[in-house]
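in:
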């Protein structure tokens, strides 16, 4: 499997595991994942979906 066959979320998870972390992807909470690399700089942008009013707001 090449990088182009993987989803952006899979690539993101692979990068995080490579640096010794872990991630649980709440796909329903993510609007989009943007991964870009220029030289040695890796930029990851996670865009979160807006929660509807009345949703569980215990997460702060």
């Amino acid at each position: 499997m090449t990088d182009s066959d993987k989803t952006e979320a899979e690539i993101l998870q692979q990068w995080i595991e490579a640096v010794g972390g872990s991630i649980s992807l709440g796909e329903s909470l993510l609007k989009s994942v943007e991964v870009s690399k220029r030289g040695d700089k890796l930029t990851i942008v996670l865009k979160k979906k807006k929660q509807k009013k009345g949703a569980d707001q215990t997460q702060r």
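note: The chain has one domain: 3-48.
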